[in-house]
Structure formats: structure tokens, C-alpha cells
From TrEMBL:
Stored InterPro entries: DedA_domain, VTT_dom
Protein name (record): DedA family protein
Gene Ontology CC, one term: plasma membrane
Compartments, record wording: Cell membrane
Amino acid sequence: MTAFLLELLNKGGYLGIFLLMAAENIFPPIPSEVIMGGAGVLVAKGEMTFWAVWIVATVGTAVGNLFWYWIGVRWSEEQLKRIIDRWGRWLTFEWDEFTKARNIFRKYGDWIVFALRFSPILRTIVSLPAGLAHMKLWRFVIFTALGSGIWNAVLIFGGRAAAPLVERFEKLAGFGVVAFVLAGVAFYVYRVVTWKPVKAHEKQD
């Protein structure tokens, strides 16, 4: 599994990493930790360079978040309620989570866009209230890139540091990757199954 992942990333190249990181921030089940960790291993092998991976990954993350920011800019809260009511189960967005991100954004302002880049759940959802509040685009991009850049760098360095162990214990590392991906899928399935429609939360909003 490890060899397959590395081969896939190697063949996809920097463009593939950009597309995967953009998609990871639009569709939740794709794990950035696996993408960046694998890219870090390729950096250690000399098949990719740290700066190129870091730049394309961070740009991809920012582009993916711009999708939700743009929706926040274009749509009202009522329209978002209808969208979450219809598609929230598959996006694993719950109205409670959106209102939580919105309230945090209102309380702490633009800098929360940077801080929540380190939160597995809220880092994507916060782009919606940022768009709704018409946060200046340049500030949104900068704070998103700063937070994402730090997180991506940590993951790349982690993958690079773990490369000798991955090579030495390839089979065990493969099981680890499979377990991580399966855990992500299981978490996604759990959220789909336990998701509650918007109407169940309207009275609590």
C-alpha cells in the first residue's frame, strides 16, 4: 500500500498534489495527512523538493477553501440552511458546526481563519462564515495560506523524517497507511449515519 501511494503521488507529480489538496478542502474524506506524509517521503528520496511540494500544497489548500468562501459570499444564511439540509449529510456539515464556526468567527474576527487551519473539522467550515461576513479576499487568502502553510510544512517534515522507517518497515508502514485511510473512511461513514438535518437544529440556532 505504501509503495502504491508513493507511486501514485510520484506519477501525479506536483499538479497531482495540488489537485488532491484542493479536493481535500472541498470533500472532507480525503486525508491531507496521507497526501503530505507521502510527499514528505518522496522529498526524502530526492524525487520531489520540499519547497515545490510545500508551495503547490499550500496553494491547493487555499484554492479549495476559496470554493467555500465563494459560496459564503454568494449565498445568504437561509440559502446555506437549505443547501446543508439537502447535501449536509454527504458533506458531513452539520448546522450546529456551521453556527459554531460562525460564532467563533464573529467573536475573534479574521485571525480565527488562521487559527482554525489546525482544526480537523472547523478548518474548512470557517470559510463559509468568512465569506458571509464578506471578509476581504486578500486577508482570507493570506490567513488561509499562513495557517495551511505551517500545517503542510509539519506534515511534509514528518513524512521526510519517517522515510527511513517507512523504507525499513515497508509492510508495517503499509498497514499503517491502510489503517489511517480506513479510520478516515469510518469517521466519514459515522458522520453520515449520525448526521441530523438542518430543521432539527433551527430552534436551537
